[in-house]
Amino acid sequence: MTDLQIAKKVKLKPITEIATTLGVDPKKIELYGNDKAKIPLSYINRKKAKQSNLILVSAISPTPAGEGKTTVSIGLSEALNQLSKKSTVVLREPSLGPVFGIKGGATGGGYSQVLPLEDINLHFTGDFSAVEKAHNLLAAVIDNNIQSKSNSLGLDPRTITWKRVIDMNDRALRRVIVGLGGTSSGIPRETGFDITAASEIMAILCITTGLSDLKKRLGNIFIGYTFDKNPIYAKDLKVAGAMATLLKHAIKPNLVQTIEGNPAIIHGGPFANIAQGTNSVIGTLMGMSHSEYTITEAGFGFDLGAEKFFDIKCQSANISPKAVVLTTTIRALKYHGGADLKSLDIPNIEALRLGLPNLEKHLENIQRFKVTPIIAINKFKHDSKEEIQLIKDFAKIKNIRVAITNVWAKGGAGAKVLAQHVIDIAESNASKFEPLYKWKTPIEDKIETIAQKIYGAEHVDYNSKAKRQLKQIKELKLGHLPICIAKTQKSLSDNPKLLGRPKDFIITVREIEIASGAGFLIPITGDIMRMPGLPAHPASEGIDISDKGDISGLF
Q1: Whether residue 64 has pLDDT greater than 90
Q2: pTM (2 d.p.)
Q3: Which of 408, 505, 520, 555 is catalytic?
Q4: 439 catalytic, yes or no?
């Protein structure tokens, strides 16, 4: 059966029952029908959160379809609950871009899913819409201020960095001209669109700790300069309060359930290749406040989402994981060993052996943070015994725990061995998290540290625009902010064609965006785009709805 067919056969528990299981008064949650709800922020308990075992699920460098981090995260949480450990999985919300594009949704797969699948992947509780509206409100206010005679701040349109956003892969909107149509239609200027998941508002939502902090961060968004070269922030436009009002409900984490009827919290949805790639601090703390084990994931490979999880989120929220589960697939390793995408289902020991250095590098990266890794082999039906054994032998040589996970086919029962490894490591307190760099380190040193130690680059090169922006950032006294590098997920380098474990390459930073509200800097490398495009045959071609309202083709 397809994921959607499996999901439709599950009889969902009332969300009030799930709230009770989590430890939240069902009378206090905000209902979105019978199977979705918002949890009040008052249920976050920092003291209890410190007692929770936070487990991060990451992955090796993926194939275009992804390697199943979400599926493994859900299955691991199910397995821990089966082993009588109170566990909650905390995930990101899906963007419509991948849903209608190539990668699909973000609710897991097979018998390891969060439900209701259709609702979560299609609009959910409206959080993405609220982020989009808050972002575009600021854009409208900016252009209105340029147009205004009585309320003008003297903004120089040429310096405005704030674009608009839409939750769709639409490459035609990357660069646009606004303000055409005469004097009554605004001042013409060049701008563009990013995808909503890359919005600084989304980043702020996922790093904030509450409404007061949210308003402060929204006010700190850098807009551009006046003609007199004075910096302008959102607070100068007196719009932060209105933006926060639009996010009144979006700031509250969403409660749903797994196939096996366990709590799942889903909140926030930044991509990891162009943003910080992890769910909200609020969502994570909510899970930790009510769970013995809190399972969360970070997008794409460890070099992207997990590095940002450690260096940005963990330091900002003062949290740290007890272990990292590194989702590994035989097909991805063969891909990094030179096998063609169309042949990944065919056993190929030699390609697998050549791909192992990619796994090795990610394991080294985890250990740089002084956290214990566990290899989770996410099993596919075409994996051969010889291929599985090769990874086991590799893990034995490296003295790293390894477990086969078959959660797609078996749900939580397929991750019990992995869950026991997690329990053993958590109870041993073997991990002593250390960040890769200190925030106060000079900007260039922070970027070079990530590029050299995590990616394996020889050095970092900056083009002329990036050099000008570095100078600008220092003049704005924002050099103390952490780094959120935008980079392709297909390679450890910034070149998607360099697979495996490339060496002696140069990372090229073409520009650096300022996310002063979110509290980080975004060096943009290679050809990465903050507005993706659709493939030649997008997934939307196969999605339909019947006269009775039954959806088909959605996974």
Answers
A1: no
A2: 0.95
A3: 408
A4: no
